[in-house]
Amino acid sequence: WSVASAGYFYKGLALTSIDVIKTGEKSEGGNPLVHFDGSIKGRADDDDATFLKNIKEVKDATGKKVLEAEKLTVAQAKAIINQASSDGKGKPLFCIHGFNVQPRTHLKTIKEATLDTFNKGKFMPIPVMWPSEGGTTNYWGDRGTTPGAGNGLKSVKQALDSFPSKSLLAHSMGNRVLRYAADAKFKFDNIFMVAADVQHNIFNKDYINSGKTTDEDRRELQGMKICSMLTSTNGKPKGKVYVLVNGADFALNASGWNPTTFTSRLGAIGAHYRRNWAGFWTEDKKVTHPDIVDCIENVGCNSKLNLMEKTAHSYQFYPQIVPTYQEKHF
């Protein structure tokens, strides 16, 4: 298995909730060829997703550069993942990108990380692409499409259920996609929330118990639902929700000053934190809902970053961070 090959932008396996357009043609292997592009806007009601491989850049009938790929069935995707493992039981890590990330950028990042640091037995990262309109002025546009991307991710539940062992990595606003995809029937061994651009108190009992408590779909329950996605063994979670934190994250600290919320972000603070009498953040697991407190673990990343990286936001695939997934994922 390789993600790099001459003539291909990305040869590996990918998953997207971006609408794909059938070309009417087939690959040499007989798979339908489709076109897709990051400029295809997402919708709040998007509800499907597609496995792809052998992605390359081509020009469509209008002369516009788009991405072309082979559309795969779930069985084909599973075979690719399993064949990459020596024991025939591949373990994918599905990676959801953040705000202002186009498909080409996400694929390139995964490809480079895979070639340099990820190639290790059965451990296979699978890029998950959702419609991000991009550009700093489209932050709120991206926030509006994350519900649809979450629905699109949920739509592949049956597909992902065919992988008995799998984990999920969400970066930045990809964690908003995760919030909307959260469902107890949607299981992962571990969930890595990296530089999470969601409110810091998403797992706090006071927040979870607020709102219209009779509404089982209220947003206050999303933190609980994320934890419910962990695979269980003998009634206990097999893994954990790992919150990767960088307190100096420039993007999240700026997001925390958003005038509509003034809410600090999880990826800059971490779970289990509250402000003390002096206004400083202090760890106190009592603030976390008791039903999920043991399911959540912070992973401090700032000490792993060099001097020039201390304020980094997109550090999810740095060589010194990847071992965190490898250690927990197996």
Keyphrases for this structure?
two-stranded antiparallel sheet, alpha/beta, 330 residues, 15 strands
Description:
With 330 residues, this protein is α/β, with parallel strands linked by helices. It contains 10 helices and 15 strands. It has helices spanning 74-83, 103-118, 139-154, 157-160, 174-181, 205-208, 222-227, 250-255, 266-269, 322-329; strands at residues 14-16, 21-26, 32-36, 50-59, 65-72, 91-96, 123-129, 167-171, 191-194, 232-233, 236-237, 241-245, 273-275, 281-283, 296-300. Strands 2-3-5-4-1-7-6-8-9-12-15 form an 11-stranded mixed β-sheet, with helices on both faces. A two-stranded antiparallel ribbon has the order 10-11. Strand 2 (21-26) and strand 3 form a beta hairpin. Helix 3 (139-154) packs across helix 5. The longest helix is centred in the middle third of the chain and has 16 residues, at 103-118.
Number of helices: 10
| Overall shape | globular
- Low-confidence runs (pLDDT<50, min 5 residues)? 40-47, 134-145
Q: What would you report as the Rg, rounded to the nearest angstrom?
A: 19 Å
Average predicted confidence as pLDDT = 82
Strand-pairing-aware structural class:
alpha/beta
- Give the termini distance in whole angstroms: 19 Å
Q: Give, in spatial order, the strands making up the sheet with the most strands.
A: 2-3-5-4-1-7-6-8-9-12-15
Percent of sequence in beta strands: 15-25%
- The helix content, as a percent range, equals 10-25%
**Strand runs, count:** 15
Question: How would a textbook summarize the main sheet?
Answer: 11 strands, mixed
SSE pattern:
EEEEEHEHEHHEHEHHEEEHHEEEH
- By oligomeric state, this entry counts as single chain
